[in-house]
C-alpha cells in the first residue's frame, strides 16, 4: 500500500503524464486533406477501385490517390481525397460495397474498377451492368456529384472479340452518364516491365506517379470547380 503522501504524488505524476500524451503539441499542423476542427468539411473526392487504386505492393503514400491529393494541395484546391481502393475487387463486389461508401456525402466520384473482371473473363455485359449500378447509386445519393470513369483493357489472350467488347463497355457508360472519361487508367504504364512489379500487372511507385500525372489532366478541372464552390 502507498502511504497517503506517496499516493498523492503518484496520482499527480500520472495525471501530468496522461495530459502530456493526449494533448497535441503546440502549433501542430493540420493535415492538408483535413478540415480544422469545427470548420466546414472539405469537398470529398472518393477514388473507388481495386488494387490499382489501393497501391498493391506499395506504401499507401506511393499509390496514385495520394499523389492526386498532393497535386491538389500544391494547386491550392481544397479537397479531401479518399482512397477507397480494395485489392481483388470485381465490379460485382464494388456494387455490393458502394452503399457503405455512400454513408457520407461525395462531391467527386472516381470509378476505377473492371480490371479483375477482365482478368477473370467475366461477361462484359455483367461488368457493364455492375458499373452502371455503382454510378447510378452514387448519383442518386449525391445528385450534384461529379463523376469520373477510368477505362480498362482486357488481356489479349481472351481474344479480339472479348477485348473489343470489354473496351466498349467503358465508352458506353461514359456516354450514358455524361461524365469525365479517362479511356485507360494504365496509359503509358501497362506492358512496361520497368513500371510494373514482377507480377507484370501492378504498377511500381514510378508507375503510380505516371498514372497520377495522366489522371490529373482529366481531374484537375473538376477539382478546381469543386474547390471553388466550397464544401457542402
Estimate what percentage of residues fall within beta strands: 5-15%
Largest sheet: 5 strands, parallel
Quickly give the CATH architecture. Answer: 3-Layer(aba) Sandwich
Q: Can you tell me the CATH class?
A: Alpha Beta
Helix and strand pattern: HEHHEHEHHEHEH
Give the radius of gyration.
22 Å
SS summary, helix count: 8
Defining traits:
232 residues, Rossmann fold, globular
What would your notes on this structure say?
The chain has 232 residues and is an alpha/beta fold. It contains eight helices and five strands; from the N terminus they run αβααβαβααβαβα. The termini are far apart.
Describe the structure concisely:
This protein is 49% helix and 11% strand. It has helices at 4-22, 51-54, 64-75, 91-101, 115-120, 124-141, 160-177, 205-229, and strands at 44-49, 80-85, 108-112, 146-150, 180-182.
SSE order and pairing:
Blueprint: H1 4-22, E1 44-49, H2 51-54, H3 64-75, E2 80-85, H4 91-101, E3 108-112, H5 115-120, H6 124-141, E4 146-150, H7 160-177, E5 180-182, H8 205-229
Parallel strand pairs: 1-2, 1-3, 3-4, 4-5
Helix pairs in contact: 3-8, 4-6, 6-7
Amino acid at each position: 500500500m502507498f502511504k497517503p503522501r506517496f499516493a498523492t504524488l503518484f496520482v499527480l505524476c500520472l495525471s501530468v503524464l496522461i495530459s502530456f500524451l493526449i494533448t497535441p503539441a503546440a502549433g501542430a499542423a493540420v493535415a492538408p486533406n483535413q478540415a480544422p476542427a469545427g470548420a466546414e468539411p472539405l469537398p470529398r473526392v472518393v477514388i473507388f477501385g481495386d488494387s490499382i487504386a489501393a497501391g498493391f505492393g506499395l506504401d499507401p503514400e506511393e499509390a496514385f490517390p495520394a499523389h492526386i491529393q498532393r497535386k491538389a494541395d500544391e494547386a491550392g484546391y481544397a479537397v479531401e481525397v479518399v482512397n477507397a481502393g480494395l485489392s481483388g475487387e470485381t465490379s460485382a463486389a464494388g456494387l455490393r460495397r458502394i452503399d457503405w461508401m455512400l454513408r457520407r456525402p461525395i462531391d467527386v466520384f472516381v470509378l476505377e474498377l473492371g480490371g479483375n473482371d477482365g482478368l477473370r473473363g467475366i461477361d462484359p455485359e455483367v461488368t457493364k451492368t455492375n458499373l452502371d449500378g455503382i454510378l447510378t447509386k452514387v448519383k442518386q445519393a449525391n445528385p450534384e456529384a461529379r463523376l469520373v470513369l477510368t477505362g480498362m483493357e482486357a488481356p489479349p489472350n481472351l481474344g479480339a472479340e472479348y477485348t473489343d467488347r470489354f473496351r466498349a463497355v467503358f465508352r458506353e457508360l461514359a456516354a450514358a452518364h455524361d461524365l469525365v472519361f479517362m479511356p485507360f487508367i494504365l496509359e503509358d504504364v501497362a506492358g512496361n516491365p520497368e513500371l510494373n512489379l514482377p507480377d507484370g500487372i501492378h504498377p511500381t511507385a514510378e508507375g503510380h506517379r505516371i498514372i497520377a500525372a495522366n489522371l490529373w489532366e482529366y481531374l484537375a478541372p473538376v477539382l478546381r470547380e469543386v474547390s471553388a464552390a466550397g464544401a457542402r
